Amino acid sequence: MGQCGVISSKTVLVFLNLIFWAAAGILCYIGAYVFITYDDYDHFFEDIYTFIPAMVIIAVGTLLFVIGFIGCCATVRESRCGLVTFSAVLLLVFATEVVVVVLGYIYRAKVEAVVNHSIQKVYNEYKGTNTDAPSRAIDYVQRQLHCCGIHNYSDWMNTHWFIESKNNSVPVSCCKPSISNCTGTLMRPGDLYPEGCEVLVVKKLKDIMLYVILAALTFAAIQMLGLLCACVVLCRRGHDPAYELLVSTGIDA
């Protein structure tokens, strides 16, 4: 029955190592997604420390490839040294993912305050040209999130671009896609997105950070299961009479 327990634990551990490889790819994808998305919204969110969870989760994903390889080799060969190394590295990764979760919650709580602080500045820098980074960022966000202005389209009337243009119009990126020949004129407010961008930008960034937190929690739970299985294999191998005999005669198991 003890031998069956070892076989069962080994089978689960090998299966988990395969999951670690899949998890590594998923974590790297999530980290890359965060970087790409933040690049689109970086003018609204200037705190570079928010990239830390994404950077850590990419590092964890890379490390999981190595962990999967070590775990498979150690499990198949039933190497005590390999399983101890595997368990130690897995415990380190688990601690790292706990840090990711904590940082994710901290930065997620800061999103609204940081966006509120920076969004007015970004709108004041709007020049309406494709060569201008803040202008491209605003047009992109308004089209992607279907919003206009900070709280609503009337916020544009307080910007330098609106005052200097003197055409009583907002950017055409405020126009609903269903409206043809929309020029952004305030004479036809029904053609424009009614919702402001501030709330939607905050929601988007919070959702991104939530994905990071959930991913870290999910794979931390899987790693704890892998750690448990490794410990079971180690303990049962240590109580295997044949193993103890080999150790006592100085032969490496």
Overview of the molecule:
The protein is mostly helical and 253 residues long. 71% of the residues lie in helices and 0% in strands. The protein has helices at 2-41, 52-77, 80-124, 133-145, 160-165, 197-238, 241-248. It is elongated. It starts with a helix and ends in a 5-residue tail after the last helix.
What is the element layout, followed by pairings?
Layout lengths: L1 H40 L10 H26 L2 H45 L8 H13 L14 H6 L31 H42 L2 H8 L5
Helix pairs in contact: 1-2, 1-6, 2-3, 2-6, 3-6
> In percent terms, what proportion of residues is strand?
under 5%
Average predicted local confidence, pLDDT: 77
The total of helices stands at: 7
How large is the radius of gyration?
A: 27 Å
Query: What portion of residues is helical?
Result: over 70%
Distance between the termini: 21 Å
Gross morphology is: elongated
The ordered string of helix (H) and strand (E) elements is: HHHHHHH
Major sheet: size, sense and barrel closure?
none
Low-pLDDT stretches are 1-7, 241-253
Structural class: mainly alpha
* Topology, number of strands: 0
Tags for this model:
single chain, 253 residues, mainly alpha, 71% helix, 0% strand, elongated, disordered N terminus, Tetraspanin_CS, transmembrane helix, Tetraspanin, Tetraspanin/Peripherin, Tetraspanin_animals
Question: Nutshell version of this structure?
Answer:
This protein has helices at residues 2-41, 52-77, 80-124, 133-145, 160-165, 197-238, 241-248.
